[in-house]
Design brief:
The chain has helices spanning about 1-45, 45-60, 65-125, 130-184. The protein is an all-alpha fold. α3 (about 65-125) packs antiparallel against α4. It is rod-shaped and about 150 Å long. The termini are far apart.
Length: about 180
């Protein structure tokens, strides 16, 4: 009986040990599950962070001060050229305005001369054919003058728009330069 007694004494110890180890295993599994969930939660953003780091590494090849220096140098190189282009555009615009005014004066003079010629023709009673010929010539001259005037007006409008766009670009560059000089 003593061996039987020993077995019963050992058996409850084994059962209690198994129960304890089962509970410990369950706790380990719960801890492992919690750790796995936490790890998954915190590593979900790793690909996005890696991409952001790659992008920032790419941009760190050139420092901000080097970029500002290059922008300042570009602005200082382009500003005189842009100002010269604006000045040339303004001069061209003035010349075109003078030419337009001169053409308008010439047109009005020719109209007056044509009217005077028409009155003289009526007084002298030239044949009808000559009057028709002069009228055709006048119409042709008028059409040519009108076409040239339209071309000049179109050119004037184009130059004005170029001048305005250059002035806006110059203002934008001046503003950018003043902002950058205020920062540095």
């Amino acid at each position: 009986m003593s061996s039987n007694n020993q077995q019963t004494i050992l058996f409850p110890d084994i059962l209690s040990s198994l129960k304890k180890s089962g509970r410990s295993l369950e706790k380990c599994n719960a801890n492992l599950s919690f750790c796995s969930h936490t790890l998954n939660l915190h590593t979900r953003e790793v690909p996005r962070i890696n991409q952001a780091l790659k992008n920032s590494q790419f941009f760190e090849l050139v420092s901000v001060s080097e970029i500002r220096a290059a922008q300042y140098q570009l602005t200082s190189e382009l500003e005189p050229q842009i100002k010269e282009l604006v000045r040339m555009t303004e001069n061209g615009l003035v010349k075109l305005q003078k030419r337009e005014q001169m053409l308008r004066v010439n047109i009005s003079k020719r109209k007056r001369l044509m009217m005077d010629d028409d009155e003289d023709l009526n007084e002298e009673q030239q044949p009808q054919e000559e009057a028709e010929e002069e009228e055709e010539q006048y119409s042709e001259n008028q059409a040519t003058i009108d076409r040239k005037l339209e071309q000049q007006e179109t050119l004037l409008q184009r130059l004005r728009s170029q001048k305005n766009s250059l002035l806006k670009e110059l203002e934008r560059l001046d503003l950018e330069l003043s902002r950058k000089s205020g920062r540095t």
